[in-house]
Design brief:
Layout: H1 6-15, H2 18-23, E1 29-31, E2 34-37, E3 49-52, E4 57-60, E5 66-67, H3 69-77, H4 81-91, H5 113-132, H6 137-145, H7 150-155, E6 159-161, H8 167-172, H9 176-184, E7 188-190, E8 196-198, E9 203-209, E10 215-222, E11 230-232, H10 248-253, E12 260-264, H11 267-275, E13 281-283, H12 291-300, E14 303-309, H13 312-325, E15 334-340, H14 346-353, H15 355-363, E16 366-367, H16 368-377, H17 385-400, H18 406-419, H19 423-427, H20 484-494, H21 513-527, H22 533-539, H23 544-555, H24 561-576, H25 578-592, H26 601-617
Helix pairs in contact: 1-22, 3-4, 5-9, 11-14, 14-15, 16-17, 17-18, 20-21, 20-23, 20-24, 25-26
């Protein structure tokens, strides 16, 4: 995939002063070596947002937001990567180079640019037809019946595809190159007889725009009785349905600060809501809501409301949305589900009842936990033991997909209260999610029993500090102040020069995700000895690892170089004791897998001995 050259990004970050970048947007106050403010990403009264000018890094101890100047601008101003880079580059007098897909070689020709041009020309053609075509009254009357004004139609670039086989083709040029561009952009169709014709005919046209406002596809609603009623562009090199959302471009550009986004089912719902003072609705494009959709939405707002018809199809669509939402439900995020009365949709309801009525429905929509438990309990008798057992078996796998945090803990507690089954037993109903394939080698171990087994009885407490160099890779990276690998990674991000203390025997190419990431960071710093904290974060920017590094670096409170180095050496010594530590842990886990009541007295004594040995090797008393 094409990307900007890393050398340019490093140069840009070197020229920026993060204090100046943030202070233009959020007023900072000097506090020792750092600067502080109330965090702009969550509500707080006591400042917990810290900016480190030496390392060009910010971190919020309240919500965990952190990163470099580029990441801050993207999140604060809701810009995509390229937009943020272009704005910051202009502020320091840098010219943004072309994308570099091959590590510094001359980039290939941008094959997609002609597609964007063809799609933009098509959109203008449809808009012009809506104003000038002799048959335009059919569309104008339809839009008026739906209560749309000319202004909102203009804002969403609504157009008209006239009846006829080749109107767009004739307007765009009948030469081979023009037809090839239209074919690649999805605007033409070729049948079995080799005949080429316009894909969209006699339809109201809704341009679909990407996050930079470029037209990438179209949706068309039929004016007559043709089928299908709605027709979308096929997927093309510039359009992937699972990534794009209709109306998101307009919602992001609205001057009002977004606090929620509503996911609805149709183009007209989005436009009608915008006209009636609800400019934060989006619609999927002929596909279910995806995890990619949800991550994009939650990056913009803390709350997403799914608004669907109350019929069976609407509830099934909503549950597919819920399944996509679960992995994105980090603490501080909220998802709600609203089902409208039969025969109503957001378009008709907002025209009949108004903005305040519909927003009140959004406010009181079912939260994710209510909808999930209602759906899972459907058809079950929760008063019976069998019903509660089935409810647990059906509900627990969904909870496993939630990211680690307070919300996941509360969800397990809620399920335990509803079923009478303890939390640890619920967690054993299904093993943790499979690790991500890009980080797991074929020899990866199964999840350790400590993650799935019930707690030990009082005479055999589980060991703390349960990280190891060979622990299984997890679904997500969760920072831990007790994990020596995590602390060492955080130190290296804060002070890359500490890499000289890391011995080669700690570096691996397979094993736990933590250990592999440590090795990758060490290799990167060795390759670029002058790398800064900001540049390191920039290299992993936009990845789960990048968020993880932000959190680890932000948690470290030591500021003096001598203190950082002393801690680094201590952590390395601790990690070098891991072979013996791992052997003890493996024995401990093998015993812990057995129900405690079935252990012999010798095995119980072995558990106590192993617990003490693990604590001793971990540097605990």
């Amino acid at each position: 995939m094409a990307r900007l050259p890393q050398a340019f990004l490093d140069d840009l970050l070197d020229r920026l002063d993060i204090v100046e970048v943030i202070d233009r947007r959020v007023k900072l106050k000097k506090a020792g070596k750092n600067y502080m403010a109330c965090c702009p990403f969550h509500d707080e009264k006591t400042p917990s947002f810290s900016v480190n000018p030496e390392r060009q890094f910010y971190y919020c101890f309240g919500c965990g937001a952190g990163g470099n100047a580029l990441g801050f601008v993207m999140d604060y101003e809701r810009l995509d990567f390229r937009e943020a880079v272009e704005g910051l580059a202009q502020s320091v007098g840098l010219e943004v180079p072309k994308d570099d897909p091959r590590g510094g070689q001359e980039p290939p020709k941008d094959d997609n640019k002609p597609l964007y041009q063809a799609l933009e020309h098509a959109s203008k053609f449809y808009e012009h037809a809506l104003r000038q075509h002799p048959e335009r009254h059919k569309v104008v009357n339809y839009l008026k019946r739906r209560g749309l004004t000319g202004e909102v139609a203009r804002d969403f670039r609504v157009g008209f595809a006239p009846a006829g086989w080749d109107n767009l083709m004739q307007a765009s040029g009948t030469d081979e190159a023009s037809q090839e561009r239209l074919m690649r952009s999805g605007m033409l169709v070729k049948n079995d007889q080799g005949r080429t014709y316009d894909r969209f005919r006699d339809r109201v046209m809704f341009p679909i725009q990407d996050q930079r406002g470029r037209v990438i596809a179209f949706g068309g609603r039929v004016l007559g009785d043709d089928k299908p009623k709605y027709l979308n562009s096929p997927e093309t090199p510039v359009f992937q349905k699972s990534r794009e959302l209709y109306g998101l471009w307009q919602a992001r550009k609205h001057p009002r600060r977004l606090e929620r986004i509503v996911v609805v089912e149709g183009y007209m719902d989005v436009i009608a809501l915008a006209q009636h003072g609800i400019p934060y609705a989006v619609a999927t494009l002929g596909t279910s809501t995806s995890e990619t959709h949800l991550e994009r939405l939650f990056r913009l707002v803390p709350e997403v409301v799914f608004c669907f018809d109350g019929d069976d199809a609407g509830r099934k669509a909503a549950f597919r949305g819920l399944e996509a939402t679960l992995p994105a439900m980090q603490d501080g995020r909220q998802a709600k589900f609203l089902f409208l009365p039969e025969g109503e949709d957001p378009d008709t309801l907002v025209r009949a009842k108004g903005q305040a009525y519909l927003e009140n429905l959004f406010d009181h929509a079912d939260p994710l936990e209510t909808f999930l438990f209602k759906h899972v309990a459907e058809g079950l008798d929760l008063e019976s033991m069998d019903g509660r057992a089935r409810f647990s078996k059906l509900g627990a796998p969904h909870l496993h997909r939630l990211p680690e945090g307070v919300f996941k803990t509360l969800m397990y507690q809620a399920l335990a209260e509803k079923t009478g089954i303890d939390v640890e037993s619920l967690k054993r109903l299904q093993p943790p999610p499979a690790p991500r394939p890009q980080r797991v080698e074929s020899g990866a171990q199964a999840p350790s029993a400590s993650e799935t087994a019930p707690p030990m009885e009082q005479d055999a407490p589980p060991p703390e500090d349960s990280v190891s160099m060979e622990e299984p890779a997890l679904q997500s990276l969760s920072p831990s102040s007790l994990n020596p690998i995590h602390r060492l990674i955080g130190l290296l991000v804060l002070k890359p020069a500490l890499v000289g203390n890391v011995p080669d025997n700690l570096l691996v190419t397979e094993g736990s995700r933590d250990a592999v990431l440590l090795s990758e960071i060490v290799a990167h710093i060795r390759q670029y000895p002058e790398v800064t904290t900001a540049a390191l974060l920039g290299f992993w920017f936009g990845t789960p690892e990048g968020d993880f590094l932000n959190a680890l670096a932000g948690r470290e409170t030591i500021e003096e170089d001598a203190g950082l180095e002393a801690l680094c050496i201590a952590l390395i010594e601790k990690l070098c004791r891991h072979p013996a530590l791992n052997a003890a842990r493996q024995q401990f886990e093998a015993l812990k897998r057995k129900p405690y009541g079935e252990l012999t007295q010798e095995e119980k004594q072995a558990l106590l001995s192993l617990t003490q040995e693990i604590r001793t090797l971990s540097g605990r008393t």
